[in-house]
Design goal:
26% helix
């Protein structure tokens, strides 16, 4: 297993929102944000941080980047296999790519990186190496106004990598990318992970992260509900072992699958064929169908979507999981102690 490089322990940042009273018209209280979160980041690992709009993903990334201060909790860095030390300035360890960076102007790609590199003490040869890494070497003299969305995303990653950070944070990096650009961007992220960079990708679309991430973190109402390798989290939330099989012709699935332990989740049929979604021993089901001459047209495991992840993690019904932006009055799911200003 890869070793952890950073550990966030009981960290919290809740935004202040207006709470006017007659005697204190400008009074504020703590509103939504990140509450009592524990998370470790691993070398060369790609963590997908997923949750609905308003879950706190951007707030968490800004905390991890050192942009928002920690109101409580601490951050530790691993020095060697045994020793950890307290981190005072995350900006020396973390590179951050916000969701939107407006690269505009007549200056060139290389010149803007040189200007930013002065603040990080990055020399020119390092800038050229970054341009090669993100695939912008042949666009080094291109004006910012002429860049496509995919090129702008690559430039944002190059800027985030100034200073050779151990951790790279990407906020909704696939927004606005066409499928070809998204695939190229995915390959770039995987190359960085192979070089040992710990990567965190924030997204509200689980499907976009398929085949990219190796760990998943479920964030809802400012709390990390579960985190770990994809397979482990699926198993803990009973979302594993689901398959969909489809075929043509009339079949009696009840009779064909008699004696096989199968939990039929959904069964549909029409004049074009039939489909069955189930949980159970996939090999036994497949063998039973084929040995009885059933014509199959498709067979695939079922990956959980965002709503299924959150329903399983929270125990809430789909009607109770809002995918809209959270209200400013929304408080965390757990009951937490509040201060006098709340």
């Amino acid at each position: 297993m890869a070793e952890a490089v950073l550990s966030f322990q009981d960290v919290q940042h809740r935004h202040k929102i207006p709470a006017p009273r007659w005697s204190k018209p400008w009074a504020q209280r703590l509103g939504p944000g990140i509450v009592d979160l524990n998370l470790k980041l691993y070398r060369g690992s790609i963590l997908g941080l997923v949750g609905p709009n308003g879950a706190g993903k951007t707030t968490l990334l800004r905390m991890m980047a050192g942009i928002l201060p920690l109101q409580t909790g601490s951050v530790m860095e691993r020095i060697d296999s045994e020793e950890w030390t307290h981190v005072d300035d995350l900006r020396t360890l973390v590179g951050h790519k916000p969701e939107q960076v407006r690269w505009q102007g007549k200056t060139t790609v290389r010149n803007i990186l040189l200007e930013l590199g002065e603040m990080r003490g990055t020399e020119g040869h390092r800038i050229d190496a970054l341009l090669n890494l993100v695939g912008l070497h042949h666009r080094r003299d291109e004006q910012l106004d002429n860049l496509s969305q995919g090129m702008r995303q690559r430039l944002s990653i190059a800027a985030a990598l100034l200073g050779s950070p151990k951790v790279l944070l990407l906020d909704e990096p696939f927004n606005g990318l066409d499928p070809v650009a998204a695939q190229a961007f995915t390959e770039l992220i995987q190359r960085l992970a192979n070089k040992g960079v710990s990567i965190v990708i924030s997204s509200h679309m689980v499907a976009q992260l398929g085949g990219v991430i190796d760990r998943i973190g479920l964030l809802h109402r400012g709390q990390l509900l579960d985190e770990g390798p994809l397979g482990d989290v699926e198993t803990r939330l009973a979302l594993n072992g689901r398959y969909t099989v489809a075929g043509t012709g009339e079949v009696d699935l009840e009779e064909l699958l008699k004696g096989i332990e199968v939990d039929q989740i959904e069964h549909e049929s029409d004049e074009d064929g039939w489909s069955l979604t189930f949980r159970g021993e996939a090999q036994e089901v497949l063998q039973a169908l084929l040995s009885n001459g059933v014509a199959l047209s498709s067979w695939a495991p079922v990956a959980p979507n965002l709503v299924e992840w959150l329903c399983a993690a929270t125990g809430m019904d789909v009607q109770d999981i809002s995918l809209e932006v959270a209200s400013s009055a929304m408080l965390p799911m757990r009951t937490v102690e509040v201060g006098e200003d709340e």
